[in-house]
Design goal:
The protein is mainly α. The protein is built from 4 helices and no strands. The radius of gyration is 19 Å and the shape is elongated.
Length: 90
């Protein structure tokens, strides 16, 4: 739990961001992060999953293969979601 002083500091920072860049503050409040960061996260998940798949194959480990497949699928789904969002916004 945050102290009253920490809450006040966060409110001051939020107010400063709203004054400096209201559009950015609105995007953060809505949970809409820059697409570049989302694409980087999706790509990292895909690459991590593919490396995990190779490791799972090398080790002949079923749980490793399953986990790596899930991580790869998450990355692919995130990548696709970002693409749909961009097409709708464009």
């Amino acid at each position: 739990m945050l102290s009253d002083e920490d809450r006040r500091r966060l409110q001051d920072i939020e107010a400063a961001i709203r004054m400096e860049d209201p559009r950015f503050a609105e995007r953060l409040a809505d949970g809409r992060f820059p697409a570049r960061a989302g694409r980087a996260a999706a790509l990292a998940l895909i690459l991590l999953g593919l490396v995990g798949l190779l490791a799972g194959l090398a080790l002949l480990s079923g749980p490793t293969l399953l986990f790596a497949a899930l991580v790869t699928a998450m990355g692919v789904m995130l990548w696709g979601r970002l693409g749909r969002r961009r097409r709708r916004a464009g």
